[in-house]
Structures are given as structure tokens and as C-alpha cells.
Design a protein that fits this description.
Layout: E1 9-11, E2 15-20, E3 23-28, E4 34-37, H1 40-48, H2 55-61, H3 69-81, E5 85-87
Antiparallel strand pairs: 1-5, 2-3, 3-4
Amino acid sequence: MEFDPDRAYHLHPKVALRPEPFGALAYHYENRRLSMLRAPELVELVESLGDHLSVRDALASSSIDQRRWPSFERALASLAASEVLVMV
């Protein structure tokens, strides 16, 4: 399924985030994939997704500069493709 920033997503229940100086590592316990979240802001955004009605709503509630939203949406799309994020 294609990533849709107008939909709600949350961290997959079988994914653990491990904080790192660059952001975090996400390990998926079912498919055994390891993904890197390369910015602390991305980690905060991923952790807040479950509190919002859509990705765009989560971005609007964040402190991330609106000019950077497209790059964060691409990162979230990649995490969704890796099953780190799931659509609600």
C-alpha cells in the first residue's frame, strides 16, 4: 500500500526504537529488519504519530520547519515500506 500523509500511522507494535546520538535504530522483531532514523526530530515525529489523525497533523504539531516536511514525509514513507510504521 502506498504511503499517504493524510492518513494516520503509528509505530508497529513489534518495533523497538533504540536511541542513538544520530537519532535511533528501529528493530522489527517479526521481519528482523533494522532501520535507521537519522535525525532526533524524526524520532520525535515517529513517536508522536499515534497521537495525531494524520502525518500532516503530526508535522503541523511538531517544531519541524515546514520547508523540511517533504524530506520527513519521504523518510516516513520509507519507514512505512519497511513496516516500521503501520497505517491505522
